[in-house]
Amino acid sequence: MQPQFPGQPKWPNVPACFEWLSLDRRGDWRLQGERVTHRGLIEFMNRQYGSDEAGRWFVQNGPQRVYVDLACTPWVFRRDGEAFVSQTGASAGEVRAMLLDDEGSFLIEAELGIGLVDDRDLATCLAECSPDDETSLLAFLSDGAPPVRWRNLPLTRIASAELAARYRFVAQPRG
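The chain above was modelled as a monomer; its predicted structure follows.
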């Protein structure tokens, strides 16, 4: 419910919008499948991006919530030097865990939340994994053994089907 102030016109009661807006695996907004390229619109959506108590992510457009279909996670992280930033420009904050799902995606559990690592940064992330023995890293990628670390954190495997429940988000909200 929106707050009302004396003299302010009441916002109309408008229905939420579903299946129009999505966030792809590179952090690009898509409106009915088409990539949004208008800088002003992208900046508006980035500012208005949030989630509700049910874990559904949306863009607040005046009185209306436009719910977002997520290709993977609510955040897509890109490298910014040694740190990571989200698709909205917000800092990921402290990286708490580095995950690898069964589809080969690197994911970061950060102070901001769970996010997919932009595929353009995968080579750098892989280079930061140890052991340096390439066969050990390939063995881990194929069957999970032997243990591998990313920087100072263990690289942990997770099933992609578990992501939404574990991190409490709804990938495809519906009314």
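The chain has a mean pLDDT of 90.
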